[in-house]
TrEMBL record:
Family annotation (InterPro entries): LMIP (IPR003935), PMP-22/EMP/MP20-like (IPR050579), PMP22/EMP/MP20/Claudin (IPR004031), PMP22_EMP_MP20 (IPR004032)
UniProt keyword annotations, A-Z: Membrane, Transmembrane, Transmembrane helix
Domain of life of the source: Eukaryota
Membrane topology: Multi-pass membrane protein
Pfam families in UniProt: PMP22_Claudin
One cellular component term from this protein's GO annotations in UniProt: membrane
Similarity remark: Belongs to the PMP-22/EMP/MP20 family.
Subcellular location: Membrane
Matching PANTHER family: EPITHELIAL MEMBRANE PROTEIN-RELATED, LENS INTRINSIC MEMBRANE PROTEIN 2.1-RELATED
Residue stretches spanning the membrane: 6-29, 66-87
Protein name: Lens intrinsic membrane protein 2.3
Keyword Transmembrane: yes
Length: 120
């Protein structure tokens, strides 16, 4: 049982790191314009030679930023609750920590799933 919990926590940790990287990266969209390759992320866009922050507020970019931050928080809190269950933290004894951690991971991935509809 503990090997599954340890493996699950390891996968959740790696997933949270990848979620942080994907939120922070500037390569959400890449396109070519006048023989130049440009790319943009949630926080800034880059043209050849320099990167600038987004100054305009587009609703789907704002919604994507909000969902990504909420997914990060849900995943991080799920990891904390999973570690508490793994080390038998005695607080909240009537509270099923493994179930709560699983629900938080599910909420985190459902928020990310909603993002796919914004860009399709």
């Amino acid at each position: 049982m503990y090997s599954f919990m340890g493996g699950g926590l390891f996968c959740a940790g790696v997933g949270n790191i990848l979620l942080i990287v994907s939120t922070a990266t500037d390569y959400w969209m890449q396109y070519r314009h006048s023989n130049n390759y440009m790319h943009q992320g949630l926080w800034r866009y880059c043209v050849p030679g320099k990167c600038m922050t987004h100054t305009d507020s587009i609703a789907y970019w704002d919604a994507t930023r909000a969902f990504m931050i909420l997914s990060l928080l849900a995943c991080f809190i799920g990891i904390v609750i999973g570690v508490m269950a793994f080390i038998h933290y005695s607080s909240f004894d009537g509270f099923d920590k493994t179930f709560a951690a699983g629900i938080l991971f599910f909420i985190s991935c459902k928020r990310l799933h909603r993002l796919s509809f914004l860009f399709s």
